[in-house]
Design a protein that fits this description.
This protein is mainly α. The chain has two domains: 2-48 and 84-312, no CATH class; 54-81, no CATH class. It has eight helices and four strands. The protein has helices spanning 2-25, 41-45, 85-113, 120-141, 149-165, 178-206, 221-268, 271-312, and strands at residues 50-54, 61-65, 72-74, 77-79. It has a two-stranded antiparallel sheet. It has a two-stranded antiparallel sheet with strand order 3-4. Strand 1 (50-54) and strand 2 form a beta hairpin. Helix 1 (2-25) packs across helix 5 (149-165), helix 3 (85-113) crosses helix 4 and helix 4 (120-141) packs across helix 8 (271-312). Residues 1-10, 13-17 and 19-34 have low confidence and may be disordered.
């Protein structure tokens, strides 16, 4: 299965590019320190120039400052390329995706060379990749959509890695940052529009912006252009906006609920409330595990659908 073996190299590179795109746009958020009987939700959800490492002493974590670089000034614009907490976990997610793809592709290649099916983790990965490729990507992108498989598979596994990393202790969820999901959506917008240009040609692509129904009287064409052109442009921008906000909102909401439930224990300082809040928080965490897979799937599915609609537009 040569295409799957090649996917390891291409998918890993694309994951690194996606991490750089999201990391460069990550916004810094620092919340004021909280009181001892409260949980500062914004401090845990927001971005910062420090990461948390586990510790054996209360509060059971150590805050480590990340290196700071001198900002770059271009005209009146100041760009700070210093690493942030979300940028670190973006790079970690990209590295994990690259390693998993490289490992899986080699195991599958060796198994096929030996004339037997892969086993264990590699078999599960191959099944997941084949399902996403056949039932989600190619089914929605349309004929001759092989060129989009590598990108869309990388999007799925990259977002999934970011979502799952956020469920680990002392970690952060890069996809709970609107700048990260916005960068991912912007990359998808570029892919969607370029796919339309390639499939429809320049004249056909312009028809998706300057829409004129067939058989329209000549006198009504200028009026129709004035009305429909802004609507078509808004429709193009609404697609990536929906992708970005959906992923951001879902990954943020679950964390807010979990932290709020845990905060009830410290607010009421009661063992009974603590047990009940912990049980409910555990249930929300299990739901978040499902949502992590679901949101990666939905982002990939909708991007595939938007590409297919653009390529079939006429």
């Amino acid at each position: 299965m040569r295409r799957f073996a090649g996917l390891g190299r291409i998918g890993g590179l694309a994951a690194v590019l996606l991490a750089l795109a999201g990391g460069s746009a990550a916004a810094q958020v620092r919340a004021p320190a909280s009181r001892s009987n409260e949980i500062d939700i914004m401090a845990h959800l927001g971005n910062s120039h420090a990461i948390e490492l586990p510790s054996w002493k209360a509060p059971y974590y150590t805050e480590v400052e990340l290196p700071r670089f001198a900002p770059i000034r271009i005209g009146g614009v100041t760009i700070d390329l210093s690493p942030t907490k979300h940028a670190v976990f973006l790079a970690l997610a990209a590295g994990l995706v690259a390693l998993v793809f490289l490992y899986t592709s080699r195991v599958v290649a060796r198994a096929q060379a030996a004339g037997r099916p892969p086993r264990g983790f590699a078999a599960a990965m191959e099944a997941m990749v084949l399902y996403m490729r056949q039932e989600v990507i190619l089914a929605n992108v349309g004929p001759h959509g092989e060129g989009y498989v590598n990108y869309l598979l990388t999007v799925f596994f990259f977002i999934l890695a970011c979502n799952l990393l956020g469920l680990l202790p002392w970690s952060a969820t890069p996809t709970s940052n609107i700048a990260v999901t916005g960068a991912l959506a912007a990359v998808s917008l570029v892919v969607i529009e370029i796919s339309g240009m390639r499939a429809l040609g320049l004249k056909g692509y312009l028809g998706t912006i300057f829409f004129l129904p067939e058989g329209l009287p000549t006198l009504l064409k200028p009026l129709m252009l004035v009305i429909m052109t802004p609507i078509e442009i808004i429709g193009k921008l609404a697609k990536p906006f929906a992708l970005a906000v959906r992923l951001f909102a879902n990954m943020t909401a679950g964390h807010v609920v979990v932290l709020a439930l845990i905060g009830l224990t410290f607010f009421f300082q009661s063992y009974l409330v603590g047990v009940a809040a912990s049980a409910m928080a555990t249930g929300i965490m299990l739901l978040e595990l499902f949502v992590a897979f679901l949101q990666a799937f939905v982002f990939t599915l909708l991007t595939s659908v938007f590409i297919g609609l653009m390529r079939a537009a006429h």
